[in-house]
Design goal:
With 196 residues, the chain is of the alpha/beta class. The protein contains six helices and ten strands. It has a single domain (4-193), classed as Aldolase class I (TIM Barrel). It has helices at residues 13-22, 40-46, 65-74, 132-137, 155-162, 182-193; strands at 4-7, 26-30, 55-59, 79-83, 97-103, 117-120, 144-147, 166-169, 174-176, 179-180.
């Protein structure tokens, strides 16, 4: 079974289509302040009529409940991905999965036993590679999504060492910050999916 692949920080329809065509399982949209930030209106526009099996992920960071409510009600994502602490105060409607983000520098955090979670560095979208050996120690439950510092050149090595449920990429599939590259998207997905 091939690894689950998420392409994050998409802002254009052409890149959404390229990711789906190449075999992505999930596509992420950043609603937090970022060079990849997208409006609800544009996120709806570029995901119109995409296949139902492709997960649409709303990526946030310490959002206010009212901002999240707007995204939940208008964009209706399949998943909310935000820092683990945010779920302590956020109300998430039924039918929307929760993917807490755990950051490598955090200590004494309780990882979920069954729920999928994202494991990455201190800052998202900066290509900060985590310690794969450490990640491997917590990937035994088959629910860890590895992020940070992955590219088409090293994703197979990361998968073979960590054995994650999935991998998540953003900056390494860009030609410049915030601008996705079709060839890099395809190369990453092909590398991840062809890795045993």
């Amino acid at each position: 079974m091939s690894v689950f692949v998420k392409i994050c920080g998409l802002t254009e329809r052409v890149h959404v289509e390229a990711a789906i065509e190449a075999g992505a399982d999930a596509i992420g949209f950043v609603f937090a302040q970022s060079v990849r930030q997208i409006s609800i209106k544009n996120a709806l526009k570029i995901t119109q009529n995409i296949p139902k099996n492709i997960l649409r992920i709303a990526v946030m960071l310490h959002p206010k409940q009212q901002d999240w409510n707007m995204i939940a009600n208008e964009f209706r994502p399949d998943v909310l991905q935000t820092d683990a602490v945010d779920f302590e105060y956020l109300s998430v409607p039924r039918g929307i999965e929760r993917w807490p983000v755990f950051r490598e520098h955090q200590r004494d955090v309780e990882l979920p036993l069954k729920r999928k979670f994202v494991y990455e560095g201190e800052k998202s979208g900066h290509g900060m590679r985590v310690d794969w050996d450490r990640a491997a120690l917590i990937a035994s439950k088959d629910n860890l999504i590895l992020a940070g510092g992955l590219s088409h050149k090293n994703v197979c090595e990361a998968i073979s060492l960590v054995h994650p449920f999935g991998v998540d990429v953003s900056s390494a599939v860009e030609s410049e910050p915030g601008k996705k590259d079709i060839n890099k998207i395809k190369a990453f997905i092909n590398a991840a999916k062809s890795c045993n």
